[in-house]
Amino acid sequence: MNAYEYAMRMELEAEKLYRDMADKTSDGKLKSVLVMLADEELKHYKAFEKMSKNQTIEAAKGFDVKQSARKIFVALKAENKRYNFNDEQVAFYKKAADVEDKSYQFYMQKAAEESDESLKNAWTLIAEEEKKHQELLENIANFVASPNLWLESAEFYRIIEED
């Protein structure tokens, strides 16, 4: 299996993970994030598929992770309700963050090995998107682990106030 096939498999597995997580999530806001992440992984799959066929890939614009996180967490705080998530849900988000980190590491390694500048840039761009996904998932994991404390934390305010 070559690097493109491996990357495509990783992206399909991540897409399935997010869709499965979305199906098991009762909170509509968190469900929408998971669906967006699944859609992003499908875009990455298609980019790697084109790369494997030596086709030109367009610079696909992903969703703005920081803006999405801000909207979600501000909406969750505005609901002013007590959240109660279980340990399985926390583990879900931590696992997803680990999946994104592994993708990031692999893609950065492939970028470093690539001599073709356009392919190097494509590997790097997708790796950077995976890093943003990881950061979002880590924040969601922290929220799910201790929702009411997290919404009052400095981390919450750092996320909603960053540019």
Q: How are the SSEs placed, and which strands pair?
A:
Layout lengths: L2 H22 L3 H25 L12 H15 L7 H27 L3 H29 L1 H4 L3 H8 L2
Helix pairs in contact: 1-2, 1-4, 2-5, 3-7, 4-5
Description of the structure:
Helix 1 packs antiparallel against helix 4 and helix 2 runs antiparallel to helix 5. The protein has seven helices and no strands. The relative contact order is 0.14. It is 80% helix and 0% strand. It has one domain: Ferritin, CATH 1.20.1260. It is an all-alpha fold and 163 residues long. The longest helix is centred in the last third of the chain and has 29 residues.
What key attributes describe this structure?
163 residues, mainly alpha, Ferritin, 80% helix
Summarize the structure.
The protein has helices at residues 3-24, 28-52, 65-79, 87-113, 117-145, 147-150, 154-161. The protein has seven helices and no strands. The chain is elongated, with a radius of gyration of 17 Å.
Biggest beta-sheet profile = none
Roughly how many Å is the radius of gyration?
17 Å
Strand content: under 5%
Into which percent range does the helicity of residues fall? over 70%
Shape estimate: elongated
Mean pLDDT: 85
Tally of helical runs: 7
CATH class group: Mainly Alpha
What would the CATH topology be? Ferritin
**What separation lies between the terminal Cα atoms?**
41 Å
CATH architecture assignment name = Up-down Bundle
* Overall SS class: mainly alpha
In total, the number of strands is: 0
Spans of at least 5 consecutive residues with low confidence: none
